[in-house]
Design a protein that fits this description.
Shape: globular
Mean pLDDT: 78
Radius of gyration: 24 Å
Distance between the termini: 67 Å
GO cellular component, one term: endoplasmic reticulum membrane
Family: Belongs to the nucleotide-sugar transporter family. SLC35B subfamily.
Low-confidence stretches: 36-43, 105-121
Pfam families: UAA
Strand content: under 5%
Structural class: mainly alpha
Number of strands: 4
Order of helices and strands: HHHHEHHEEHEHHHHHHHHH
Strand order of the largest sheet: 1-4
Membrane topology: Multi-pass membrane protein
Protein name: Adenosine 3'-phospho 5'-phosphosulfate transporter 1
Helix content: over 70%
Number of helices: 16
Length: 448
């Protein structure tokens, strides 16, 4: 009897909170639509309204989950011995240690050990071919992704009737990228055998999923105020907020060279920001908006990687499990928000009017999802250091490609800033490897 009462309370909490948040979103949406939209566009602060509506849409999922979590904590609901779909779902969400299911992925302990043995047996030519494959895969997918990202957010689309229009819904692009990544990770988990038990409570993925979609949204929105090279260099500078998040979340400590390279990266970023001659919008509000969105993008992206790293360490979550869990909640959050704002109807209407946009959407989704798979494969085969070097080269090529295609103008100070940032990153990689080698030799000497 107690379980049925608990199920009724849980369903009631979910229904009530969804209704409250939904009607709140509609009220805010109708109010903003009746406001002076032309003034909002002119003053370049309408992104704040869109962000507020997005957060309200996410609250349609987050608020019911929070209320159910609180109810489960202060009741004896999970102590019920009876079975039921709602009880099992709540257990999977808040306790983890689920039975074998979709999220269970191949036993990576065995695969890693076998791969390390096979790695010793590989010849130089095999390593060269695999490294070339990883390098080209990462470069092609992410350079194409960056080109399409800038094209979609900054260029106008034209159809056969002569209509010209920009696409402005950043959240729809985030949803498109995540839905394909979710599909690919689902297929991978289904077709693989020898599953590794999934022990992570599902609600743990929500935190990095929310920060992931918000950082991606800030990334797309920032292109309306700053050029793509500035955004790429800002991402290369995220070492600084990653260090800060690492201290806050994981209580990490850092070496002196890490602080020095972080300072050099900050100086290089400062020189580049003031060495770019692109004229997006000369008013101060646009400049401040672009800066806020870039900061939000970097901070949220840094939190995402730090939180994912903590899940890897605490629960032994595999990369594919992480890919599935994060993209599952990302699709749920963004689809709910798009539905409430009529984003799906507007985006599909744009697709119907401008068919070339459909091709760009498909390509950017394929590049985003396949790029994640290349990341996992490269790290498993050659380690994180090789991956960082490849992606650093990709960032430099992305800036060069964007300047050539979209004709961005950068002064001498901007070029110096770019070289300083990437030079500091390579210096950081060199010092890290050097220090690791010294510690390894000391450990060997102690053993001897």
């Amino acid at each position: 009897m107690g379980q049925y009462i608990g199920n009724f309370i849980i369903c009631g909490l979910i229904l009530l909170s969804v209704i409250v948040v939904y009607f709140t979103t509609q009220i805010v949406k109708s109010f903003t639509e009746n406001s002076n939209d032309s003034l909002n566009q002119e003053l370049s602060y309408n992104w704040i309204i869109r962000l507020s509506l997005n957060l309200l849409g996410y609250a349609t999922v987050l608020l019911p989950g929070y209320l159910v979590y609180k109810y489960v904590c202060y009741s004896k609901y999970l102590q019920n011995t009876d079975s039921g779909c709602i009880l099992k779902l709540v257990q999977h969400c808040f306790l983890g240690n689920t039975e074998t299911g979709l999220l269970d992925s191949p036993n990576y302990t065995a695969s890693i050990s076998s791969s390390s043995v096979s790695r010793l047996q590989r010849t130089f030519s095999h390593d060269a071919i695999k490294l070339t494959y990883c390098f080209m895969g990462l470069q092609i997918t992410y350079l194409t992704w960056g080109y399409l990202q800038e094209k979609i957010m900054t260029q106008k689309y034209k159809n056969n009737n002569g209509d010209i229009k920009n696409f402005n819904d950043s959240q729809f692009l985030v949803f498109i990228n995540r839905i394909l990544a979710l599909t690919m990770s689902s297929i991978y988990l289904i077709i693989n055998k020898k599953p590794k038990k999934h022990t992570t409570p599902l609600y743990k993925y929500i935190f990095c999923s929310l920060s992931n979609i918000m950082s991606a949204w800030c990334q797309y929105e920032a292109l309306k105020f700053v050029n793509f090279p500035t955004q790429v260099l800002a991402k290369a500078s995220k070492i600084i907020p990653v260090m800060i998040m690492g201290k806050i979340i994981s209580r990490n400590t850092y070496e002196y060279y890490e602080y020095i390279t972080a300072i050099l990266i900050s100086i290089g970023m400062f020189l580049f920001m003031f060495g770019s001659n692109d004229k997006y919008d000369n008013n101060n509000i646009s400049t401040i908006s672009g800066l806020i969105l870039l900061i939000g993008y970097i901070v949220l992206d840094s939190f995402t990687s730090s939180w994912q790293n903590s899940l890897f360490n605490e629960y032994g979550t595999t990369s594919i499990q992480m890919m599935f869990g994060v993209n599952l909640f990302s699709c749920l959050l963004t689809s709910m928000s798009l539905f409430q704002q009529s984003g799906f109807a507007e985006s599909f209407s744009f697709i119907a009017q401008f068919p070339t946009f459909t091709i760009d959407c498909l390509l950017i989704s394929i590049c985003s999802a396949s790029g994640q798979l290349f990341i996992f494969y490269t790290i498993s085969e050659f380690g994180a250091v090789t991956f960082v070097i490849i992606m650093t080269i990709r960032q430099g090529l992305a800036i060069l490609l964007s300047c050539i295609i979209y004709q961005h103008h950068i002064t001498v100070f901007g070029v110096i800033g770019i070289n300083l940032v990437f030079g500091a990153i390579f210096l950081r990689i060199y010092c890290s490897n050097r220090l690791r080698a010294i510690r390894r030799r000391r450990a060997e000497n102690v053993v001897l």
